[in-house]
Structure formats: C-alpha cells, structure tokens
Amino acid sequence: MAALAAGDLMAFLSSGSLVWKPMRAHLHCAIITNPLDNSCRYEQHISEEVRQCLRLSSFDSMLWSDEEILLLLQFMFTDLGLIESIPLDMTVLRNFLFQVYKNYNEVPFHNFRHCFCVAQMVSVFKQ
C-alpha cells in the first residue's frame, strides 16, 4: 500500500470515513431532541433493578439508547448527591448533559458512550 500524502490524509480524514466523523449533525440532534427537558417523569421510569445494576461495575451500556444514557447520567448525578452538594439546578444539569452529548465527535472509541462508561465507573468507585 502506497503512503498517503499529507493532503490525501486530510481529505481521507475529513471525508466522514469509518475513522472519523464530525460532531453530531443538527439533523441527528433534531431526532434526539433533549430528552431531559421533561425528565422528572423519566426518573420515575428508572426501575429499582436498573438503579441497582447501574451501581455495578458489570453494567452494560451497550444495551441502552443514547436517550436512555442521558437519563441514566442524570440519575447518577442525583444518586451521588451532587445536585445538593454543589448545589446545582436540575435544568442546568440537564442542559449541560445534553450539550456534552451533542458536541462529542462520533469516533470509534472516545465518544459519548465512552464518556458514559467512565462516568458510570467513577460513580461505582465513589459509592
């Protein structure tokens, strides 16, 4: 395989190949609107079984949609008592989590799902 010239490499990387994709497009974000806007009702739908599993290192994030991951992150912040200790307004937290989600690059590994996995594991260690 011939070596790529610098210009060819940049063209390849910016082409939206499997190696790199830009931040989530507005179209994608329009489909996943901020599910945390009305999350008071969503928190009630996180069962006690899911809450307990979320506290385990064996939690499998691949079973959850992006919308559910956002809600689970909100629950983790609440469960750790960060809302009261900072203090942090729930609306600010919801908007922050959604902006983090929306602005992550879609890459194979260091993506939003990886962010969730790290946050979830830190919450396991913190308890």
TrEMBL record:
One of its GO terms (molecular function) is 3',5'-cyclic-nucleotide phosphodiesterase activity. One of its GO terms (biological process) is signal transduction. InterPro entries: PDEase_catalytic_dom, PDEase_catalytic_dom_sf. It comes from the Eukaryota. The keyword Cell inner membrane does not apply. Residues 32-127 form the PDEase domain. Keywords: Hydrolase, Metal-binding. This is PDEase domain-containing protein. It comes from Nezara viridula.
